[in-house]
Design the sequence.
């Protein structure tokens, strides 16, 4: 009888000890859960603060340390850390009373939590990185029994600011047709060879015969990509064949980077030049430019705005137009270079239209016709005609264009050989916006 009572007493003690142990484990779990929750919030705050500081640096590359601290403090306050000490590049700002977090902002980044290193410290572009480190403390409720009054977290985030730069939004695309549904959006006929060098052909149409080559010509390109389908007929040779079909469509890559120039003030005269003499015209507004003589026409560098009558070169005369951009407005008419004279044409080498030699307004559906029948043809730059049908004709020798052609639809014909050579230095260079990314 006494043995049973003794066993009951031992069981009661074990139960009590078990309950105490469970309570202790539960208490510690609560404290650990609070610390984990704080770490999660701290990481969110660090990520958001790093991106906000990066955005502030984009808006003001010469932003001061106090301004960075204000930016970071605003974000961390919204994320639950209103009473903080913030150190920016070893200078302390916004001291708090009994802060629950210490925040460090480094640009360029330094060692991280616990002395950890990161690959950005020695990056050649390390000034592009902004590092935010949050050291936070969480008061415990039950752990003080074990002598633990606080639990500590350290998190960090690194955001990168890639500065704006110049570049071609359609880099590598020697010929790009934008029409989304056209039959034969890219159409090659005739017997002359076509080569796209240092770039390729992109056809945005989803038609089953969006890309078409017929005749006995050779078509050679670094790549051919077609949203829809591709066909060939006759003895035509195409490389690569078959093209890559079914690729995702794209939008006009210049839609946000190219805007019409300001229209020059004053009158817009009509200019029709004939004869065998040497002529020179200056940039400005024109109601058509026509050159049909046997002499020479020099176009001084600058922007030529055409509001009607188009641009037309015919006859046997020579055109020299270096550092020139021709803009043809919605009602400005066609662009034609179909004469037998020599053509030397290059785009501006600086400014907003660097590398852009022809700009047909997006609402101008008139055609663009270029014939490589002259004795010497030296043409460079981007031909941007997003609503136009472009026709390129080769009839003698070998026509080389250090150019890029962006249009609605495109046709190459004739017996002459034509090479479109994509040259990054010769084509349009847009001001690309800065980029922000979270690197860590």
Sequence:
């Amino acid at each position: 009888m006494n043995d049973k009572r003794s066993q009951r007493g031992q069981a009661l003690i074990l139960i009590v000890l078990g309950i105490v142990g469970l309570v202790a484990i539960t208490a510690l779990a609560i404290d650990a859960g609070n610390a984990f929750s704080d770490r999660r919030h701290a990481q969110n705050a660090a990520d958001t603060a790093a991106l906000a500081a990066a955005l502030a640096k984009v808006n003001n590359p010469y932003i001061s340390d106090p301004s960075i601290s204000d930016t970071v403090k605003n974000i961390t306050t919204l994320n639950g850390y209103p009473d903080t000490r913030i150190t920016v590049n070893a200078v302390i700002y916004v001291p708090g009373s009994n802060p629950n977090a210490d925040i460090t902002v480094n640009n360029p980044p330094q060692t991280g939590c616990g002395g950890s290193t990161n690959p950005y410290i020695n990056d050649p572009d390390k000034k592009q990185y902004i590092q935010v480190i949050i050291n936070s403390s969480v008061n415990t409720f039950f752990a003080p029994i074990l002598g633990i009054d606080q639990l500590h977290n350290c998190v960090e985030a690194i955001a990168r600011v890639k500065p704006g730069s110049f570049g071609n939004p359609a880099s590598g695309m020697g010929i790009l047709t934008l029409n989304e549904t056209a039959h034969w959006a890219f159409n090659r006929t005739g017997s002359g060879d076509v080569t796209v060098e240092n770039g390729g052909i992109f056809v945005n149409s989803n038609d089953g015969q969006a890309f078409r080559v017929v005749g006995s010509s050779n078509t050679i390109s670094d790549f051919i990509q077609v949203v829809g389908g591709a066909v060939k007929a006759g003895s035509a040779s195409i490389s690569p064949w078959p093209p890559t079909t079914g690729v995702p469509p794209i939008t006009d890559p210049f839609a946000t980077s190219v805007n019409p120039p300001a229209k020059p003030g004053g009158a817009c005269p009509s200019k029709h030049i004939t004869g065998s003499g040497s002529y020179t015209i200056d940039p400005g507004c024109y109601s058509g430019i026509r050159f049909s003589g046997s002499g020479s026409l020099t176009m001084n560098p600058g922007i030529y705005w055409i509001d009607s009558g188009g641009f037309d070169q015919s006859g046997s005369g020579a055109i020299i137009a270096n550092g020139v951009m021709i803009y043809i407005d919605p009602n400005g008419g066609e662009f034609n270079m179909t004469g037998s004279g020599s053509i030397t044409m290059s785009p501006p080498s600086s400014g907003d239209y660097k590398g852009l030699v022809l700009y047909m307004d997006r609402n101008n559906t008139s055609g663009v016709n270029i014939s490589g029948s002259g004795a010497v043809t030296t043409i460079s730059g981007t031909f941007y005609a997003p609503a136009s049908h472009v026709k390129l004709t080769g009839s003698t020798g070998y026509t080389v264009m250090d150019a890029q052609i962006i249009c609605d639809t495109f046709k190459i014909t004739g017996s002459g050989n034509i090479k479109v050579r994509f040259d990054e230095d010769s084509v349009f260079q847009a001001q690309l916006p800065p980029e922000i990314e979270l690197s860590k």
Notes: The two ends are 70 Å apart (CA to CA). The chain has two domains: 21-163, 168-431. DSSP finds two helices and 34 strands in the chain. Residues 168-431 form one domain.
